[in-house]
Design brief:
The complex is a heterodimer of chains A (about 300) and B (about 300). Chain A is mainly alpha-helical. Chain A has 15 helices and no strands. Chain A has helices at about 20-55, 60-65, 80-85, 90-120, 125-135, 140-155, 160-170, 175-185, 190-195, 200-215, 215-230, 235-240, 250-260, 265-285, 285-299. Chain B is mostly helical and about 300 residues long. Chain B has helices spanning about 5-40, 60-65, 70-100, 110-120, 125-135, 140-145, 160-185, 190-200, 205-230, 235-240, 255-265, 270-305; strands at about 45, 55. Chain B has a two-stranded antiparallel ribbon. In chain B, a hairpin with an 8-residue loop joins β1 and β2 (about 55). The longest helix of chain B is centred in the first third of the chain and has 40 residues, at about 5-40. Chain B is flat.
């Protein structure tokens, strides 16, 4: 790009020109350069996944002969059976699905109820509640993990999926409450007034009018919670120390590599099994993912 | 409405309000607020295992933590890691977002999907896969280097300094997409007609960036920087699955340090680990106040640029 002088000289080419001249082609060159660069970068970005899929279909001998080729000499589907049955990934998948769905339900219900009253009502103590929530906007798991384990032990839920779900559902998630509160706050008052005239109570107003209106927020919160829980590692790791049958996919992967350090193809197959569901979900609901994450900046 | 009825109505309303707050009060109280408070107590006791007795020892855990070179190493690693990955994430993703935001770019949506893809994948799984990808003997990276004439494999995860660099690179690859989405959201707040106007005035791309894009992105830069730095404190999953904090504690961030003393030691030092956790929590809390300030400052900035 040339740096033109800042004096507003009349442009040499009128704007109405069709992109046909060599000059136009030259001006577009940087763009094609950029596209090429983006393609190369993109290939680098997806390479690890391509390698993982490729390794999951190779035989062990082929992997260790150290070829760079991504196309297997012969497709060994048996790796998947080994990961699913022998390594227990079928079981881990079930655990992950159970824990994720239960946590999503808990978080959505909890944050919707809490966000609703904080967003639409002033009541004694409301400012204190909001203050405490904002103060704990960001709490890393490493900070709270020891008391959480001790507490779960006291409650008798340490080595159980229930304990895992409660701990994951009770994590801060303050931003979700705030998103709900902000959304409910801006809904016009007339919406509920008509219902109250008809004699609807507090709960019915929420259940029949407010909650259906908040579906876009619910979709975002559910999706982001799904993502976070499906990928959770720290809490499930600690909760399944003494009960291997409670492992989720991410914890199972650690254990698998610890026990079978040489089974690369099995490891890769287990990785594909673990990652495919969340990637498929993302590809189908991409817009909501992106909007949910962008929301952190917009607020 | 007559007054007494109104009072009863208000009371009933408040009962409902607290009923709605209950799930959050209970769950969040038990699993977030209580642990934050309990950590302070636990940091003052000697406590070797979740089943064993707690003995009050005052501040001696803090003395022990602050005297432990391992703790300072983990603080150092955390800081270096943040300094390595935060600027890379913020600046690279801004450049990429500007290119992707251009109306002239073909396949912009596809590129966006590709760069965002690592974000949704499970960190702990990716960490394990990366161990294999960077394997000195049979990993594809070293295989590629060999074909390029590098006879001796590079042990990416075998030396402290290099391991931290490698993990940082993987971290940037993995979470880069989040920051990119932040920037794209920020760029979309800039009205297109400003660019049209600049074009008519004959401004070059560089000038447009300097005089239009950059000033308008300033408030976002503050928030995005804070959010990104906060993210870097949460590197447990990647470190634990890729290096376990090794080699020789070279990638041991604070969360791994706490985990090691509480869960991975033969005799767990829970009081000691709690003291480290409290120090970590205080540090994060201070940063949280900084975040609130940043949001406030960004609002002021945005109002002044309008």
């Amino acid at each position: 790009m040339t740096t033109t002088t800042t004096t507003t000289t009349a442009k040499a080419h009128p704007v109405t020109r069709r992109g046909r001249s060599p000059w136009e082609a030259f001006r577009r060159l940087p763009w094609w350069g950029a596209v090429l660069l983006l393609v190369l970068l993109g290939l680098l970005w997806i390479y690890p996944f391509v390698w993982m899929v490729s390794a999951s279909l190779k035989s062990s001998t082929e992997i260790f002969s150290g070829g760079v080729s991504l196309w297997p000499e012969e497709f060994v589907w048996e790796n998947y059976a080994r990961a699913w049955d022998d390594a227990g990934f079928g079981r881990y998948m079930l655990n992950t699905v159970i824990v994720t769905l239960a946590t999503v339900v808990i978080v959505v219900v909890r944050c919707a109820l809490c966000g609703y009253v904080l967003g639409r009502y002033r009541f004694p103590g409301s400012r204190i509640v909001i203050g405490i929530l904002v103060a704990t906007l960001f709490v890393p798991t490493g900070y709270t993990i020891i008391p959480i384990v001790k507490l779960s032990m006291e409650l008798g839920v340490l080595n159980s999926l229930t304990g895992m779900v409660l701990a994951l559902g009770g994590a801060a998630n303050v931003s979700f409450i705030l998103i709900y509160a902000g959304y409910f706050r801006q809904l016009p008052k007339e919406l509920e007034e008509a219902a109250i005239m008809d004699g609807a109570g507090f709960f019915r107003v929420f259940w029949t009018i407010m909650l259906p209106l908040s579906m876009p927020v619910t979709a975002t919160v559910a999706l982001l919670t799904f993502l976070a829980t499906w990928n959770a590692f720290f809490l499930p790791l600690v909760f399944s120390f003494s009960r291997p049958e409670l492992r989720t996919l991410s914890v199972g992967m650690q254990a698998f590599v610890g026990e079978n350090a040489t089974d690369w193809s099995g490891m890769a197959a287990a990785g594909v099994i673990s990652i495919v569901p969340i990637v498929v979900l993302f590809l189908f609901l991409q817009r909501y993912f992106v909007e949910g994450i962008a929301g952190a900046v917009k607020s | 409405m007559p007054a007494p009825v109104r009072g009863a109505h208000l009371r009933r309303r408040n009962v409902w309000i607290w009923a709605f707050l209950m799930p959050t009060v209970v769950l969040y109280g038990l699993y977030t607020i209580y642990p934050i408070v309990a950590s302070y107590w636990y940091s003052l006791v000697e406590w070797n295992g979740f089943e064993s007795e707690q003995r009050f020892v005052g501040f001696s855990n803090y003395e022990a933590v602050l005297a432990d070179p391992g703790f300072w190493n983990s603080v150092w690693v955390t800081v270096v890691f943040t300094l390595l990955v935060a600027p890379a994430r913020i600046i690279l993703s801004l450049l990429l977002a500007i290119v992707l935001n251009s109306p002239k770019l073909p396949f912009a949506a596809l590129f966006r999907t590709v760069y965002f893809l690592p974000v949704v994948t499970t960190t702990a799984i990716v960490g394990v896969v990366m161990q294999f990808i960077f394997d000195p003997a049979s990993g594809p990276i070293n295989a590629a280097l060999q074909t390029l004439g590098q006879s001796k494999g590079i042990n990416f995860l075998g030396e402290s300094g290099l391991a931290l660099l490698t993990v940082s690179a993987v971290y940037v690859w993995k979470f880069f997409g989040i920051t990119m989405i932040y920037w794209l959201a920020a760029l979309q707040t800039i009205p297109r007609d400003l660019y049209e106007a600049a074009k008519i005035d004959g401004a070059s791309a560089v000038q447009t960036f300097r005089h239009i894009t950059l000033p308008l992105l300033m408030p976002f830069l503050l928030i995005i920087t804070v959010l990104t730095i906060e993210d870097t404190f949460r590197a447990f999953d990647l470190m634990q699955s890729m290096t376990g904090g090794g080699p020789f504690f070279g990638t041991e961030v604070i969360e791994i340090y706490i985990y090691r003393w509480a869960f991975a030691a033969s005799i767990p030092q829970l009081g000691f680990a709690s003291a480290a956790a409290v120090l970590f929590g205080l540090f994060v809390m201070v940063f949280g106040f900084f975040q609130l300030w940043a949001v406030y400052a960004a609002r002021r900035l945005r109002e002044s640029t309008r």
